[in-house]
Each structure stands twice: as C-alpha cells, then as structure tokens.
Design a protein that fits this description.
With about 200 residues, the protein is an alpha+beta fold. It is built from eight helices and nine strands.
Length: about 200
C-alpha cells in the first residue's frame, strides 16, 4: 500500500487517475486517499489537481495543465482573443470560452470547472506568431475588428518587420482559406509599397 506522504505530486499539475498507477495497484482508491489527505483536489471524474499556493491562497490549475491531462498528451493549441489581441493588429475580442484546436474532439466541454470550446482544426506543431495572424484573419467577425482594418494593420506591421512575410505566406497557404491568403498577399503588397 502506497503511503500518501511519499508520493511525489507536483504542485500545480493535473493528474488523471491513471497517472497514479505507478504508485499503487488501485489508482482510484489511491486518488481518493490523496484527496482525503489534502494532497490532491478532485476537479471532475478522473481528474485531480495538486494544489499550488500563493500568498493570496490556493491557485487554480492553468488552462494548459487541465488540457494536458484531459487530452492525455495529444497535440493541441490554445488560441482565441488572448493570443489574437497580443498580436497588436487591432483585435479587441473577448470570448467567454477559450478555443482549443486539436485532432481528437469538438464541442464545448467543462473541465474542472472551466469551459473550453474544442475544435478539430489543423495547426502546426509549434505555431509561430504568423499562424496566429492567419487564425485571427479566419475569425475577424468574432475578433472585433473589420477585415479592411485588419489588412491595413497587418500591412503596417509587416512594413515594420513585426512578422516574417515568407512565414506568413506559408502559414496562410497551409492553414488558411482563399480569403485569408488574399488578405495576406494584399497586406504584403501594401507593405512593400510603403518600404519603397
């Protein structure tokens, strides 16, 4: 029988019941014991969180920690307003639920008290900023910026060297629709005209 004080849980990490199998033959019973002793907190069926504390109290698990455990190592990318607004292209979007692109599931799901909007959409293994630009172009209506304004702002950003034009064309070709590809090409033309 595993002693709860000798199990090296990592503060801030989310565990599936199956993760505990290495410390005991019955991971469900072990999870219950760790929960009773305060080592873990139950988030939802089969998911537990090792509490992390700050000077303000217990810190909830990050979205990434929840998604890592829930998707069990399957690749995903967390996108939406927080990423789009950070690009500095005029987006002021606010979404109720973060977007999670993955290849496993679609739909709105509640994981550990937080809701995520899962979508099966292709994405690169390590998305560069230019991919997030294409993603923003795909969601102009939801992002709170007109396509024309976004195109202007993108041309300005390209002329300042804030994005790699070649990488942007590649990301648009691989992951964008014709509309996003056209917006990228137009922004590049305007950026080149400004730099001459």
């Amino acid at each position: 029988m595993a002693q709860t004080q000798h199990i090296p849980v990592e503060a801030g990490r989310v565990y599936r019941t199956g993760h505990l199998r290495r410390w005991g033959a019955n991971p469900t019973r072990l999870a219950a014991r760790l929960e009773r002793s305060g080592v873990l907190r139950r988030l939802t069926h089969g998911l537990y969180y090792a509490p992390r504390r700050s000077k303000f109290g217990e810190v909830p698990p990050s979205a990434e920690a929840l998604l890592d455990a829930f998707l069990q190592g399957t690749a995903y990318v967390l996108t939406g307003p927080s990423r789009w607004n950070a690009l500095g292209l005029g987006s002021t979007a606010l979404f109720r639920y973060p977007l999670v692109y993955n290849m496993k599931r679609s739909g709105r799901l509640n994981i550990g008290g937080r809701t995520f909007d899962f979508r099966q959409i292709a994405f690169p293994a390590a998305p560069p900023a230019e991919w997030f630009v294409v993603d923003l172009l795909r969601h102009t209506r939801e992002a709170g910026v007109s396509e024309a304004m976004l195109g202007e702002n993108l041309a300005h950003a390209l002329s300042e060297g804030r994005f790699d034009g070649d990488k942007l064309v590649l990301m648009a070709a691989r992951f964008g629709r014709r509309q996003e590809q056209d917006t990228v090409q137009n922004a590049l033309r305007r950026a080149l005209a400004v730099s001459k």
